[in-house]
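ok new one. same drill as before - structure tokens go in, u give me an amino acid for every spot. 681 of them this time. try not to just spam alanines like last time pls lmao
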């Protein structure tokens, strides 16, 4: 019997049962692990035995007993901030502060901070504002004690209360954590039934209203199930999910992977799996279209198992629910499993205090001005609040729920539409409520200025030098790759070859976050951007559109035609041996006018510099028509018998080369320089 099923029977939460099992010395991996009959019997005996008062006490969230409880109460997720030791260097930081600015304060590269934040579960972009709590923790990671600069009297007598709770994944502020609804995103291959499932669950007709039945927008809705409420983000798939991540918003708690039982695992199913994995979000599988006569659920379960999603039915931990969006079957069970998964995750947020959250979508309406769908992640958003959202500010004029009804406030995990913004923010932009309208405007102006000196500059690019710096700083022990190839066979061959490379000098690990067949696409680029990965394209084309996106997002795409070259480059990268790329830069050209033979000097080409410049000791190529007759070095460069270092265009000079003597009139001497460009990877 499964842990969760037994828990249900015994009227315990799965978490409670898990901790009881641990006390009893019964080892299980998770709520979906199986118990032997003997174990089950033991548990029943023990649980039915002791007075039930005991575990009830655990269930009720401890009342917010002011300060000391806090540390112990915190979920395990973020690494505990090293308490500022006496030796930390004090840095006074003016808030609000962006990742980029904080990097300057701390004296580290911004992308190192971004990596570190990623490790902490915070998906921050360069220009994202950090709350004090996060900044302080980050500072302590680098031996700095961040002390907020307090300009005026906004100070609250040194109270540890944080004014602006961050976008969710940041470490919780502590005080009053309460359970919150899970936020769920559906992903899966095209036409496997994402929209239909959501539609059935909401009992409304989204598919019918869409152009061609394809989901075109990102909306958010809450669904009340028997045992709780679930917030659904209706994204059109993993590309949007990852784009939000790149923008700094990791909203999704659980991914529903929709797989059609007839078609099974398809390329986009695999992509979705890898996108969810890269984000560290648990997956619940909805095996859809189970009503079809061609449905082969067992085959799909095997396919899932092959990809590391081992279904419960086969002894694994992955929850797989058979559903039919059309017949409406299995959906209640799906909701129940989502709530179960959520319960295990102990999702919490602090409903008190000023709200923070993320924009899901926004648009400009003719009658209501800018309107944004936002998801509140912390605190409670109230009508009349002043907030900053990206470069915009707002005095919240009205709040609507998903049914278009006006409400006065919205707590954590609640999606609402708000009016009153000064502009239309982008999806994934975070918002924070601030003290008053003046402050909101001040911050938004500050951000607008900053936007002008934008933005995704080079420091975000994953360069080899940076990786080494990070290796040296002990920040990163991994080189992350995303691999695309022309056919399955070559993808597998490359992947296998790469995995066989020993971990380089310092035991650096190679991680392949996604591999697949086909051209590098936009969703690959976004995944790489979100994960700091380098893309390897093996015998695949690269569309200009994708190349441009990669450029904009600072993602390095390297293409190869031969396996050993891929392996060679990666091995060298890991060992720090990547050869710099050699590039020639043309400096100038001179035309030979006359040829002199001078004793002691040999042959001198009397020349006129026609373009650029010729340098003494520089390299030249001797061109006769289109033919290169020699490549040599300038040993003597003279103007009117004077040796000079360089001669520029429009001037005569005498040139001698180290070896070549057989000049002819009208030969062109092309001066060039060899530039070594350190390779990026
Ligand atoms: P995209 O948004 O285009 O990626 O597709 P989607 O995943 O949202 O799929 P959608 O819900 O639009 O469904 C695609 C097709 O599959 C539609 O024609 C649905 O009627 C059909 N379909 C969805 N679920 C089921 C199901 O449970 N059984 C059957 N028989 N058909 C289904
Ligand atoms: Mg759809």
């Amino acid at each position: 019997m499964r842990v969760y099923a037994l828990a249900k029977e015994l009227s315990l939460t799965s978490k409670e049962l898990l901790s009881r099992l641990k006390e009893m010395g019964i080892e299980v991996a998770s709520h979906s692990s199986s118990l032997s009959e003997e174990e089950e019997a033991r548990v029943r005996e023990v649980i039915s035995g002791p007075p039930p008062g005991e575990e009830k006490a655990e269930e009720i969230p401890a009342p917010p007993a002011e300060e000391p409880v806090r540390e112990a109460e915190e979920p395990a997720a973020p690494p505990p901030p090293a308490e500022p030791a006496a030796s930390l260097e004090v840095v006074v930081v003016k808030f609000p502060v962006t990742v980029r600015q904080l990097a300057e304060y701390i004296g580290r590269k911004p992308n190192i901070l971004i990596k570190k934040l990623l490790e902490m579960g915070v998906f921050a972009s360069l220009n994202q504002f950090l709350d004090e709590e996060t900044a302080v923790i980050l500072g302590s990671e680098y031996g700095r004690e961040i002390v907020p600069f307090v300009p005026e009297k906004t100070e609250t007598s040194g109270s540890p209360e944080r004014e602006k709770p961050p976008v969710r994944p940041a470490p919780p502020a502590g005080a009053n954590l309460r359970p919150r609804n899970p936020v769920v995103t559906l992903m899966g291959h095209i036409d496997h039934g994402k929209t239909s499932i959501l539609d059935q669950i909401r009992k409304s007709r989204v598919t019918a209203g869409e152009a061609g039945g394809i989901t075109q927008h990102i909306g958010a809705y809450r669904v009340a199930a028997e045992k709780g409420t679930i917030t659904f983000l209706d994204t059109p798939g993993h590309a949007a999910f990852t784009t939000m991540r790149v923008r700094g918003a990791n909203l999704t708690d659980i991914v529903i992977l929709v797989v059609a039982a007839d078609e099974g695992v398809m390329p986009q199913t695999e992509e979705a799996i890898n996108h969810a994995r890269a984000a560290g979000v648990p997956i619940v599988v909805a095996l859809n279209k189970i009503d079809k006569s061609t449905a082969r659920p067992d085959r799909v379960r095997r396919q899932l198992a092959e990809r590391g999603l081992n279904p419960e039915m086969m002894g694994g931990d992955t929850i797989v629910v058979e559903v039919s969006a059309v017949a409406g079957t299995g959906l209640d069970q799906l909701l129940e499993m989502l709530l179960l998964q959520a319960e295990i995750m102990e999702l919490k947020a602090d409903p008190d205090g000023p709200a923070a959250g993320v924009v899901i979508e926004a648009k400009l309406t003719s009658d209501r001005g800018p309107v944004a769908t936002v998801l509140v992640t912390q605190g409670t958003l109230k009508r009349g609040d002043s907030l900053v959202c990206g470069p915009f500010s707002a005095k919240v004029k009205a709040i609507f729920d998903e049914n278009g009804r006006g409400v006065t406030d919205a707590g954590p995990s609640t999606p609402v539409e708000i009016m009153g913004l000064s502009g239309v923010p982008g999806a994934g932009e975070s918002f924070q409520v601030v003290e008053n309208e003046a402050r909101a405007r001040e911050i938004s102006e500050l951000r607008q200025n900053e936007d002008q000196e934008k933005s995704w500059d080079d420091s975000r690019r994953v360069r080899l030098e940076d990786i080494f710096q990070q290796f040296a700083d002990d920040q990163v022990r991994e080189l992350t790759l995303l691999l695309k190839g022309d056919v399955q066979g070559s993808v597998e061959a490359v992947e296998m070859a790469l995995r066989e490379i020993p971990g380089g000098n310092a035991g650096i690990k190679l991680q392949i976050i996604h591999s697949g067949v086909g051209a590098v696409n936009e969703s690959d680029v976004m995944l790489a951007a979100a994960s700091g990965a380098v893309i390897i394209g093996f015998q695949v084309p690269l569309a200009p559109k994708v190349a441009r996106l990669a450029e904009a997002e600072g993602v390095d795409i390297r293409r190869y035609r031969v396996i050993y070259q891929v392996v060679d480059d990666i091995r060298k990268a890991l060992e720090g041996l990547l050869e710099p790329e050699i590039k020639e830069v043309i400096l100038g050209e001179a035309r030979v006018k006359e040829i002199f033979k001078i004793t002691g000097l040999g042959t001198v080409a009397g020349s006129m510099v026609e373009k650029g410049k010729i340098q003494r000791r520089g390299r030249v190529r001797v061109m006769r028509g289109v033919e290169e007759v020699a490549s040599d070095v300038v040993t003597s460069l003279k103007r009117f018998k004077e040796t000079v270092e360089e001669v520029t265009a429009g001037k005569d000079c005498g040139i001698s080369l180290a070896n070549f003597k057989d000049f002819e009139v009208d030969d062109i001497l092309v001066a060039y320089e060899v530039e070594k460009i350190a390779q990026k990877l």
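Residues 194-195, 214-215 surround magnesium ion (ligand 2) (CB under 6 Å). and btw Residues 163-180+355-471 form a domain with the Elongation Factor Tu (Ef-tu); domain 3 fold (CATH 2.40.30.10).
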